[in-house]
Amino acid sequence: MQIYMPTNVYFGSNCVVNHRKELAALGNKALLVTGRHSSRVNGSLEDVKNALQKEEKGCVVFDGIEENPSIETVMQARDLGIREGVDFVVGIGGGSPMDAAKAIALMIANPGESEALLYEKRELPSLPVAEVPTTAGTGSEVTPYAILTIHARRTKQSISHKIYPRLALIDSRYLKTASLNTLIDTAVDALAHLIESYLNTNANAYNRMYSEKGLSLFSQMREELMQCRQMDREPGLTLSDTVFDKLMQMAAVAGMAITHTGTSLPHGLSYPVTYEMGVPHGRAVGIFLPGFLNCYEAKEDVQAVLDGMGFASVESFTEYLDELLGKVEISEDLWKQDVEMIMGNQAKLKNYPFPMDEDTLYQFRR
Ligand code: NAP
Ligand code: ZN
Fold it and tell me: Is-above-0.85 flag for pTM?
């Protein structure tokens, strides 16, 4: 058994500016990698710029990261980073800019290489990476994974290299500008990480501690999360600072959980749904959680997960999720292709510790 969690994680209000010395220690000039709008609205980009300025470090901004970032966008940002002579990368935003930041840091550190490098299995250097999350879902601020869209294959896949962020600066104030749908979708993503890590070929007593902590946080705020559904109809209703804090903590420990185990079938099944239908990542993963829990053979482990979340049965969890997420209709053709893709790829099945057949997997669609 091994626990390896090399990211230095700071949590708290104003932690970007408070921990600017650790940020500045990563290099002399940073590439700030972010999405198109939100980091300007929630103050995270300004905080990082201020922190670097106070420490007399340079920076340049790449703000073209789209949702589910593509290899093409990573290569554009790499070109800017090389031109500008940056020596570290800061991802600011949701999982998309944070994942992109890791892939960009790898490509800048290997300037003579083509994009094929992203999916080659060899040891390579990377620039140091810091992450500032503004959604509470992916946990990318602590995971070594970077999932990119591969248009040529009409899907998404994690790059072959593990890039652990050196520093994660987590301030839940940035969540306050997120839409209710984003808050819900990303919370379900974190929940899926907790569940898929606990029920995993690579799970052991040590790494399950992360899932147990995260499931407990989820149980403490699942009703507030459901209230998000009513907030549109009742202006003035908002989540409390405590809930924003718990959401960020849950996402971070869920990231620590999958850092040790990887994800499982719900994540594998979700990627074509996101690519072909544009369903946000967490919502797409959530479609498959009830089916996953229903078919998982170690029923005592499933019960432990349900107990952790505070549900008596898979049925009551499913009812909760249906109300929280609504229904996503997946066409028969897409669903068949999706199931066949998973069944034909051993790498997608290896984290599921029991035999799986096509008929059983077919039942996963809600
Ligand atoms: P995202 O794609 O990063 O962002 C979704 C949307 O939310 C964007 O429009 C973004 O706007 C907006 N947004 C972000 N923060 C906001 C805030 N504080 N206020 C208002 N709007 C905000 O969503 P995500 O769910 O966090 O990340 C999904 C990606 O992460 C997927 O590609 C998924 O595959 C990946 N992922 C990675 C891991 C991992 O371990 N590395 C795990 C799970 C998922 P802007 O574009 O304007 O910023
Ligand atoms: Zn995920």
Answer: yes
